[in-house]
Amino acid sequence: MDDFILGFTTLFFDPTGLAVFFGGLIGGLMFGAIPGLSAVTLATVLLPFSVYFAPSHAIMLLAVIYVSGIYGGAITAILFNIPGSAENAPTAFDGYPMTQKGESGRAIGAAVTCSALGGIGSCVLMMAATEPLANWAIRAFGPPEIFALIFLGLSIAATVGAETVWKGWLSVLFGLLLGTIGTDPAGGLARFDFGINYLMAGIHFVPLILGFFAVSEVFIQGHQIARGLRVPPALGIDFPSLAEFWRLKFAVVRSMLIGFFSGILPGIGAVLAAFLSYGEAVRWSKHPERFGKGEIEGVVASETANNAATGAAMIPLLALGLPGGALTAVMVGAFQIHGMEPGPLVLITSKDLVWVVFVAMFFANVGIFLLGYIETKTVVHLLRVPFSLLAPAILLIASIGAYALRGLVVDVWVMFLAGIVGYLMRRSGYSMAAVVLGVILGQLGESAFIKSMQLLDYNPLNFFTRPVSTILLVLGAASLAYSIRRATRSISGKDAVKPHVP
Amino acid sequence: MSAKKSVRTICGVTAIIAGLGISTVAAGADLMKPGGYPERTVSIIVPYGPGGGSDQVARAWATAMQKITGVGFSVENKPGGGGLAAMPDFMGRPKDGYTILEQTDGIITAEAAKQIDFTLGKDLIPICVTQATFSQVYIRPDENRYTDWASFVAYAKKNPGQVNLANIGVEGSMEVVQWGAIEDAAGIKVKQISFDKPAERYASLIGGHTDALFEQPGDVRKYLEGGQMKAILNVLSSSPDAFKDVPSLNDANIGDVPVLQRVRLFWVHKDVPKERQEYLVKACDAAFKTDDYQKFNQSKYMHLARSYYGGQDATDLVRGLVDAYVALYKKIGFTK
Questions:
Q1: What's the pLDDT score for residue B30?
Q2: pTM for the complete prediction?
Q3: Chain B contacts of A186, Cβ < 8 Å?
Q4: Which residue from A157, A350, B8, B73 has the highest number of Cβ atoms inside 10 Å of its Cβ?
């Protein structure tokens, strides 16, 4: 507690520190919200200037940008189906349908509150036990356990948002197939490239999600307008009630834990945290069929987990010097600029700095809540803009996002192609959420699978010689069996789910 | 050519160019921007994940280049395929000098092994080499099955195929060839696990999922100083002062093993306008000499040997290494 108070006074009784804190908070929020740009972009641009800052301010600035940047993308995902960053993609699965139902205020309120709660919870765990947690996580989870975790996540993916479980599975398999395009993660062999350089590099995730979500949505809305069926979404500025949050308490805690442990594992991070947490929300729900159609718990799961991953990602960085993702790698750069190396010694030699960072991350999450509350009452009014004006703006922002990624026009074409494919698939009852889950989990899962096979003498049965991977694989298999049983029942008409898309 | 001679070739090329190179480093003072280039952020594609040696070099270099050029240099990690997955992405980018590729000797061995269909120095132009270093083998300090190289070898002989080594790279890469030669000379056989993301690779050793790690000392310095890793073999003929307590190849009685360097360098596509290429070479010279980059280089043990080659020197080093690897591959039967 003394350390916390020390960090608090160092941060809040220093005008420069406060300016850096709020600058980072608002900057991260804006960069997180714009597709194609991210908190990492801002952090990279600012890194060289951090040499002029005190070391604690430099690291703190990046940490605050990290926290607010992860949340920033939720707003555009909910209001316009444009996930600002990959870790906000699952937020759009249910956040946007909620907006369609006139519940945008509830969705944003849930995102704001849960981002803050997830972040604060993970900060508390980070402050309490950075070192033992880091050591435990890297010992308990090797490649086989990570593969098993992803398998468990995939086993539920088919139930998200599709008309029938079969169509859900086809969507997932389509995503897995897309994920295999490009150079394989172990031997460097090109697959499904047809001699085209662009395909050899693999289809980038950002144009894909912009196409599947934002562009296909514009087409669907346009189609409805043409048929005279479109009803503009009602404006909702109501925050979710306390009773509603109380009802979701288990979902929040579960998502916080999933986000936290995904964040601790190097190479996993906030994207997988959000996707896995969303999958678990579906699995634990009494009404899995509501997901993908505007279920508040979907927003809660995704936003709690991705922010919980931020505090957790600081743990291996500070305790072991292992940066798990791009933003934590930029932080290593900031440490080095100031002549330090993150790792066990930092916790001893630069305790003051570490606690300023902890406290700043804690209050950045509180800041998200306050700023987010204001946003709920203001940004939502953007929905008053007529769709005929909003649609070109969405397409323009999405196009800029796809292009800004790497300066390739072909990424913009891929986005539009994904938009057309997404439009046709959604019209036929397939699920874009399941496709995207397939792409993300497939790519990470393949990489973990290859390393596992090398470790386990290429004998898949050896997965069952490790307790954690055994438990996760058995749970995944049970979930898969349940899903197949549901699918066969739905064919016989007992458990058919009505389509939710036009 | 014997393996030993191949090594001599590799070391010889390095030494000859070492003599030539200093003048180039001293030159690079004229930093007029050709036609205003660069006027916006330049991307550096790093073919490995965040946190590893290549990533650390790219980020330190990006900061130094930003200081010299006045525009941002941002790092994009594109891991996979032992460093080759980044290539199609780089080749597809606009050839305007706003995308720079970092590659290691991995791309040099790929040409020697005919795994790529372009020629280094012709299709892909080296701007500068900013790091040339040696490798080591590491274990956990609290490991009780073995505590040094001799006991590691004894344990591996007693348990053939049961010991794992965290490594990286496709067949024919420096890491795989180097470790293969060490294995053959020491008479052991261990399983190599390929991790493209360095954080995962280091975590796998620290977390106990692998038994040893093949890596370069600068990349893992903080883990060595933090007591999370311990070096047990210098992959050098004789041990440098900084690691004099760790046996060299000669000390371990495997002195015939070729010594392969890890080099890290920056490239542009041949179609990038010549004046932009020349500007980047000069900017790199100046960036390398900045205090911050020099400090970084020292922290990576780079002051132990020459680690900078700019412009034509870099091209000569690359071509020399390609030829040496071609000879070595024939010798070990990897290629015909």
A1: 55
A2: 0.79
A3: 81-82, 170, 194
A4: A157
